[in-house]
């Protein structure tokens, strides 16, 4: 399995999260399964970004985790929130974010969603020419200048990135070659043109690949702006910073990426001279800060194999089950919370309580012996956990969520 992220300690064998004992957190929440998010770890990530990327704005892509207490803590520390539905837009506004610092991307925005964004003064990242027509018409009908940016489908993608969202035929963004004409039309129609959104991939751990993609993104933004003869106020360079979920993966060298981007921007073409630049991150900010705690309800053997069966599973933590974008299932880091740091004694498979073979939390891992009642901690659970899991599947109770503040 992958390495447990740095920053988790123990007290008398009990896992500490944000300096608090896991058993005390469960008692406070009332029950397992429970997601705990350590705000200090998130703040540390934000601090690290600020040092590595001076002068570059930081946006949080809230689809990674929109739990309200976490979101309002983050909203006060970043420069923008990126949302992908009117529901997420309302969450971002409720978290106290200035509408001018919210951008709304995502394919298939309905008219009522466009209207809500225009009324709120949120920037719409246009995903198609048809959406541009509808947004312009809605703006005219309401007598307001809509804030519009263009999401570009780039003609490249981050090498080796986990999830491909650019390069070739995609439902996201507008093909680069058609963008200059659209930008001209937005400006001529009197829209408040906000610039570009160019997202080339996710879950990249290779600094060189990210550096190359960022340089290509800046070059593309310059080329499109020159062709349109319009300078963009903001270029959202996408994100794609990955985290090391699995055995053998090395963490991303963010500082190296920051130094390279600094050089790229220092040498940027004149048309981008007055542009601001933003990076939008989801999992890199919150993924490692979350732990999913689930209790062992049964222990059994089958054909010589020991199973720990828990009260949680893929309905809360789909990604750990291997069913969220993985091709070959690999184990997220796990531990027995009450014996944190103890040596492995037995090989077990940890599964959830859903009646499907898909519901696996860890296959064939060495753990200290765990009995019924012990708690399993699944790490790397802060991003794409509860918000990305099929909670209604099989009718089990929802998970609890809580944040722990700086210790
Ligand atoms: C999902 C998404 C993100 C966040 O991706 P992470 O891998 O969590 O950083 C950022 N931007 C866009 C456009 C996205 O769709």
TrEMBL record:
- Keywords of this entry: Pyridoxal phosphate
- Determine the domain of life of the protein's source: Bacteria
Provide the Orn/DAP/Arg decarboxylase 2 C-terminal domain boundaries. Answer: 35-382
Q: Which GO terms describe its molecular function?
A: diaminopimelate decarboxylase activity
Gene3D superfamilies per the UniProt record, alphabetical? Alanine racemase, Lyase, Ornithine Decarboxylase, Chain A, domain 1
Domain named Orn/DAP/Arg decarboxylase 2 N-terminal: which ranges? 40-286
Fetch the SUPFAM superfamilies from UniProt.
Alanine racemase C-terminal domain-like, PLP-binding barrel
Describe the family membership recorded for this protein in Swiss-Prot or TrEMBL. Belongs to the Orn/Lys/Arg decarboxylase class-II family.
Annotated NCBIfam families = dCO2ase_PEP1
State the protein's name: Pyridoxal-dependent decarboxylase, exosortase A system-associated
Which lineage is the organism of this entry classified under, starting from the top rank?
Bacteria, Pseudomonadati, Pseudomonadota, Alphaproteobacteria, Sphingomonadales
């Amino acid at each position: 399995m992958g390495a447990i992220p740095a920053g988790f300690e123990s007290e008398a064998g009990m896992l500490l999260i944000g300096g608090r004992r896991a058993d005390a957190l469960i008692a406070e929440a009332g029950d397992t399964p429970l997601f705990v998010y350590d705000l200090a770890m998130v703040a540390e990530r934000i601090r690290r970004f600020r040092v590595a990327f001076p002068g570059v704005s930081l946006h949080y892509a809230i689809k990674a985790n929109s739990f309200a207490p976490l979101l309002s803590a983050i909203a006060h520390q970043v420069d923008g929130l990126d949302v992908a539905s009117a529901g997420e837009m309302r969450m971002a506004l409720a978290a106290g974010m200035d509408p001018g610092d919210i951008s709304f991307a995502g394919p298939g925005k309905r008219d009522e969603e466009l209207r809500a964004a225009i009324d709120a003064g949120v920037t719409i990242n246009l995903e198609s020419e048809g959406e541009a027509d509808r947004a312009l018409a809605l703006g005219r009908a309401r007598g307001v200048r809509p804030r519009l940016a263009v999401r570009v489908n780039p003609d490249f993608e981050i090498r080796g990135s986990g999830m491909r969202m650019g390069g070739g035929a995609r439902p996201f963004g507008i093909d680069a070659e058609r963008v200059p004409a659209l930008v001209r039309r937005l400006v001529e129609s009197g829209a408040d043109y906000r610039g570009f959104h160019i997202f080339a991939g996710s879950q990249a751990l290779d600094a060189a690949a990210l550096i190359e993609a960022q340089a290509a993104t800046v070059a593309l933004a310059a080329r499109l702006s020159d062709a349109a003869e319009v300078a963009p106020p903001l270029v959202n360079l996408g994100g794609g910073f990955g985290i090391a979920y699995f055995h053998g993966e090395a963490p991303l060298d963010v500082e190296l990426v920051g130094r390279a981007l600094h050089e790229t921007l220092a040498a940027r073409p004149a048309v981008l001279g007055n542009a601001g630049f933003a990076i939008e991150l989801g999992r890199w900010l919150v993924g490692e800060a979350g732990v999913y705690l689930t209790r062992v309800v049964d222990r059994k053997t089958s054909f010589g194999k020991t199973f720990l069966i828990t009260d949680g599973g893929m309905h809360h933590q789909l990604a750990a089950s291997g069913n969220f974008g993985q091709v070959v299932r690999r184990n997220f880091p796990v531990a027995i919370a009450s014996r944190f740091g103890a040596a492995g004694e037995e090989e077990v498979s940890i599964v959830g309580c859903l009646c499907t073979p898909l519901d696996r939390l860890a296959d064939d891992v060495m753990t200290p012996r765990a009995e019924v009642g012990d708690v399993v901690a699944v790490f790397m659970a802060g991003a794409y956990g509860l918000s990305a899991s099929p909670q209604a599947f099989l009718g089990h109770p929802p998970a609890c969520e809580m944040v722990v503040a700086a210790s």
